[in-house]
Design brief:
The chain has 234 residues and is α/β, with parallel strands linked by helices. Helices cover 45% and strands 16% of the residues. It contains eight helices and seven strands, in the order βαββαβαβααβαααβ.
Amino acid sequence: MSRSVLITGGSRGIGLAIARRLEAAGDRVAVTYRTGEPPEGLLAVECDITDAAQVDAAFRKVEAEHGPVEVLIANAGVTRDALLLRMSEGDFASVLDTNLTGAFRVVKRATRGMLRAKKGRVVLISSAVALRGESGQANYAASKAGLVGLARSVARELGSRGITCNVVAPGLTETAMSSGLSDEQRANLVEQIPLARLASPEEIAAAVAFLASEEAGYITGAVVPVDGGAGMGH
C-alpha cells in the first residue's frame, strides 16, 4: 500500500536517495529542505527543524497533501567541526539543536498521527561516529549518539501501539560532504574501513527502506550500522 512518508533533509545526499527509493516502491514521499533547490518530482517543504513552528507547519502541509505521516525518516543534520579546545559553545549547541533536538521535534509531531492509527515507522539517521567517536567532532558525535537513546526510549514508549523506532548508522558515504575531502584525507579514512571504500547513498537507503517496511515489523530499538565494518566492536 502507498504510505505517507516524510524525510527531513531529503533534498540531497542520503536523504534524497532514501526518498527516491521509497518513491519507487510506491509511497507518497515528502521531503523537507532548508537551503538550495528542492528536488524535482517530490513534495518538498521548506523547513528549519530548529523551529518548532516551522516543523508543525511542514507537517500540516504534508498531511493536507498526502495524509497523516505513516513513515518518518529523521535525516536532517549539520556539522560544525573543530577540535575540542577550539570548539565554541555556540557550535556545540547548534549541532545538538539540529541533529538531536530537531529529531525530537519531528518524532514528537509525527507520532501524534501514528498513535491514532496505532501503527508507524520511525527511522533516525545517526552515524558510525556516534559510538566510536571522532577527533574534531565532539558535537556531531554527541548529537548522533543521543539519537540512539532517543530511539530506544521511543521504542519502549510506543511499541505497544504498533510503532517501531530504529536507527541507521552510516559510515563515510559518497555525498557532497565527503567530496570536500582531500585525496590524503580520503585515503586515510578508507584505510580504516574493512571494505576499503565509501558507501553509496543508495546502500544507506536500502537499510532504511527495510526498517520502514512491513517485513521489519518485529524490529525496534535497533541500531543498524551501514559502515563497511568501520565501527565493529562499538
